[in-house]
Amino acid sequence: MPFRPEDQQDRPGYFFILSGPSGVGKNTLLGIVLQGLSGVYYMPSATTRPMRPGESQLNPYVFVSKDEFEEMIERGQFLEWKKIHTNDYYGTHLPSIRYAIENGYDIITDMDVLGCADAVAAFPEHICTIFIMPPSLDELSNRLYSRDADQRNIQKRLERVELEMKYQDKYDFVVVNDNLDESAQQLREIIQEVRTSKNFKGKREVPQ
């Protein structure tokens, strides 16, 4: 990703990670927050899932074929990767993270709870973790049914919610996405607070 020299910090870069159940609104929140937040770069994950209406390359993912993804696995290009939900791959590009942290650039992405555990283990001094909570499980279920006609996919996502929710106490911050504008403002304030700290220390407990 192209980094601007004026965004370089006089400290190592911070890596902000958002996690939360599928359908909780992580990408929507990120889109709102990044519009009014300069100097923080969105790092899209790579995925093999099909592009949805309104999406494009790099927004919100780097869309690749399964052959391309598996080749990247063999080359050790991922910090973490998973095959989830509909047997599609998702992964986080390791060289991009290293470059950003080593050169003082702040980056942000969304990641599942197990991937986040891998990231914290790899970069414990440079990561800020934020868990996005739904206002209720009923509301989360309604959101999923409104965006996906395949009930099997929805059921797989709902079955994973229980696992994901167990990790919330391991995160540095928790944001309940009830009111979108208020949640986006809370998320923005968290990011700004951490960025102004040269020595941010979160809970630093690696999720197990």
TrEMBL record:
Top EC class, one word: transferase
Reaction it catalyzes: GMP + ATP = GDP + ADP
GO molecular function, one term: GMP kinase activity
Domain Guanylate kinase-like stretches: 13-192
Gene3D superfamilies named in the record: Guanylate Kinase phosphate binding domain (3.30.63.10), P-loop containing nucleotide triphosphate hydrolases (3.40.50.300)
One GO CC annotation: cytosol
InterPro entries tied to this protein: GK/Ca_channel_bsu, Guanylate_kin-like_dom, Guanylate_kinase, P-loop_NTPase
Keyword annotations of the record: ATP-binding, Kinase, Nucleotide-binding, Transferase
EC number from the UniProt entry: 2.7.4.8
SUPFAM superfamilies in UniProt: P-loop containing nucleoside triphosphate hydrolases
Keyword Iron in record: no
Role, per record: Essential for recycling GMP and indirectly, cGMP.
Family: Belongs to the guanylate kinase family.
Name of this protein: Guanylate kinase
The organism of origin for this protein: Sulfoacidibacillus thermotolerans (Acidibacillus sulfuroxidans)
